Amino acid sequence: MKVAVTGATGRMGREVIDAAREAGHEVIGVSHSSTGEYAGVAIEPAEEFATLLEEREPDATIDFTLPDPSVSYVTDCAAAGVPAVVGTTGFSEEHYEELCEASKAIPVLQAANFARGVQGLLSAVREAVAALPEYDVELTETHHNGKRDAPSGTANRVLDTIDETRGESPRVHGREGDAPREEGEIGVHARRAGDISGEHEVLLAGNHEELRLTHRAGSRGVFAAGALDAAEWLAGRSPGWYDFSDTLPDSQS
Ligand SMILES: NC(=O)C1=CN([C@@H]2O[C@H](COP(=O)(O)OP(=O)(O)OC[C@H]3O[C@@H](n4cnc5c(N)ncnc54)[C@H](OP(=O)(O)O)[C@@H]3O)[C@@H](O)[C@H]2O)C=CC1
Ligand SMILES: O=C(O)C1=N[C@H](C(=O)O)C[C@H](O)C1
């Protein structure tokens, strides 16, 4: 597969390039900040991305950047007919609308977390919340000190999953003050420290017992591997909006 990697000099961009090279793929790096070479891969300037897509015709693009550049890259992919895998998080509603617009022309797969275990976490959370509707729920996510968006994209996905199961709950971010917990609220806590790749813990408590569901990524390589699998799966698909769960073995599609 020939794959273009945007945000090539970022933490995830470098990780995806390493994984793609390891798997024997042809890689085109794209960066807004530097050109040259990384791991034997030529890094092309972002302003030439649209031309590069037309001339080099990659099978897919993998993007881990920021919301605005991500939407811009995917819009160029739509114009050139190149499938887009998007790992970027922190999108607004307006960003999602633009990504959905692009998905009318090309297949787009956006996922807040490309670790396969997170699909297991989402299923476990759905089941636990359904089985224990009166238990208090608190969510804690922990990431490296360079992460910008909070709560994480994965945390937001977990919160949406809880809402889908037991109805919309008020979210209390980083609780403080002088009042007991309100019934039904969900506490959301974001920690930033060191080089932690990503940890999400859902705590359910009640009836003098606790249930803790935790996913911990051991390295960023986990996300890069999932994104590459998604790109291989997405290449050649029809235009549309796809979820990472669609690519996994027990999926119906
Ligand atoms: N879905 C998942 O599984 C995962 C998602 N993520 C998400 O991926 C995103 C990136 O994370 P991470 O790699 O740690 O972040 P980094 O800050 O390390 O990398 C982001 C890269 O985006 C590019 N960029 C920044 N500003 C601009 C701009 N104005 N125009 C174009 N490109 C720009 C830069 O690369 P360059 O200078 O080369 O252009 C930068 O290095 C985040 O949203 C994070 O939450 C992270 C891990 C896993
Ligand atoms: O920024 C990160 O590093 C990560 N971001 C994703 C998120 O926001 O959920 C996924 C993963 O936890 C790592």
From TrEMBL:
The keyword Nucleotide-binding does not apply. One of its GO terms (cellular component) is cytoplasm. It catalyses: (S)-2,3,4,5-tetrahydrodipicolinate + NADP(+) + H2O = (2S,4S)-4-hydroxy-2,3,4,5-tetrahydrodipicolinate + NADPH + H(+); (S)-2,3,4,5-tetrahydrodipicolinate + NAD(+) + H2O = (2S,4S)-4-hydroxy-2,3,4,5-tetrahydrodipicolinate + NADH + H(+). Residues 142-182 are annotated as: Disordered. The keyword Amino-acid biosynthesis applies. Its EC number is 1.17.1.8. Keywords: Amino-acid biosynthesis, Cytoplasm, Diaminopimelate biosynthesis, Lysine biosynthesis, NAD, NADP, Oxidoreductase. Residues 1-114 form the Dihydrodipicolinate reductase N-terminal domain. It is found in: Cytoplasm. NAD(+) binds at residues 7-12, 87-89, 111-114. Residues 117-248 form the Dihydrodipicolinate reductase C-terminal domain. One of its GO terms (molecular function) is NAD binding. The active site is at residues 143, 147. InterPro entries: DapB_C, DapB_N, DapB_N_CS, DHDPR_bac, NAD(P)-bd_dom_sf. Pfam families: DapB_C (PF05173), DapB_N (PF01113). Belongs to the DapB family. Homotetramer. HAMAP family: DapB. This is 4-hydroxy-tetrahydrodipicolinate reductase. It comes from Halalkalicoccus paucihalophilus.
